[in-house]
Design brief:
Length: about 70
């Protein structure tokens, strides 16, 4: 199953923890920083929502990129 379909399924099933991981995976598989930051922001939003263990890692990456304070 493609990553896009996995993301759509996770949204449909409201599996927010899985969305964190899938959006992080998407961030690692795109070619521009703008795309990476977009997907990391999505991952971070869901991570905050569910208290995911990737929250501090995502925050650190977003701060490094100047996207988050």
């Amino acid at each position: 199953m493609s990553l896009n379909k996995k993301i759509l399924n996770a949204h449909h099933n409201k599996n927010f923890s899985l969305l964190v991981e899938l959006y992080q995976e998407a961030a690692e598989n795109v070619s521009t920083r703008q795309e990476q930051n977009f997907f990391r922001v999505q991952a971070y939003i869901y991570a905050l929502e569910v208290g995911h263990n990737l929250t501090p890692i995502l925050h650190k990456k977003l701060v490094k990129e100047g996207v988050e304070e």
